[in-house]
UniProtKB/TrEMBL annotation, chains A, B:
Provenance organism: Tahibacter aquaticus
Name this protein carries in UniProt: ArsR family transcriptional regulator
UniProt xrefs under SUPFAM superfamilies: Winged helix' DNA-binding domain (SSF46785)
Transmembrane parts of this sequence: none
Any matching Pfam family: HTH_20
InterPro entries found in the cross-reference section: ArsR-like_HTH (IPR011991), HTH_ArsR_DNA-bd_dom (IPR001845), WH-like_DNA-bd_sf (IPR036388), WH_DNA-bd_sf (IPR036390)
Gene3D superfamilies given in the database record: Winged helix-like DNA-binding domain superfamily/Winged helix DNA-binding domain
Domain HTH arsR-type: 2-96
A single GO molecular function term of this UniProt record: DNA-binding transcription factor activity
CDD domains on file: HTH_ARSR (cd00090)
Amino acid sequence: MNRVAESAQLDRLFFALADEYRRGMLDRLSRGPASVSDLAGPLGIALPSAVKHLAVLELGGFVVSEKVGRVRTYTIEPKALDAMEAWVARRRKLLNSQFDRLELYLAQQTRKPAR
Amino acid sequence: MNRVAESAQLDRLFFALADEYRRGMLDRLSRGPASVSDLAGPLGIALPSAVKHLAVLELGGFVVSEKVGRVRTYTIEPKALDAMEAWVARRRKLLNSQFDRLELYLAQQTRKPAR
């Protein structure tokens, strides 16, 4: 994936999580595959609304779906979580280097003889 | 923070990340505090646009700002990264338990004597 495509994928990934119902669906799917009605029921939302939210999650790379007979089953896709973990870990690393540099700077300032 | 407020905050947190410019600003801020023009310049965006993106990041809890004289300086807020790490870690745990249960189930099936 090139940089532009990767960035667009991160947009879709984070956008998918910016909604309580979609996060609720992911929590349910973390416990195993489910159908649209399994997912809509506990959240108290209508099926067409659930289908739209699932499409956003699918675009974000969080779920895959498969239709067997008349029932479409949704399964969580762990790769999206990997991508998020990688993103968060990189920011944490950048942030820690900033604090390390600050600490080094403060240590150097403390060691300087008073003039 | 109650559950509703916490969920609304997660909405704002993930929405803030669903944009390449805002993620670019966070990368820059991970290396140290910066002014609006420091942040707008490298991204090639206009100052009013940068101000809007920074307001979204501030709502998401990723940055704090302080005005000294005529210059407003933005600093990264590590707590938002903590909240994200907690969210991701919880989903990873749920997902791993799902795989553990699946593994246990398969192991039990394998052990069953053929009838």
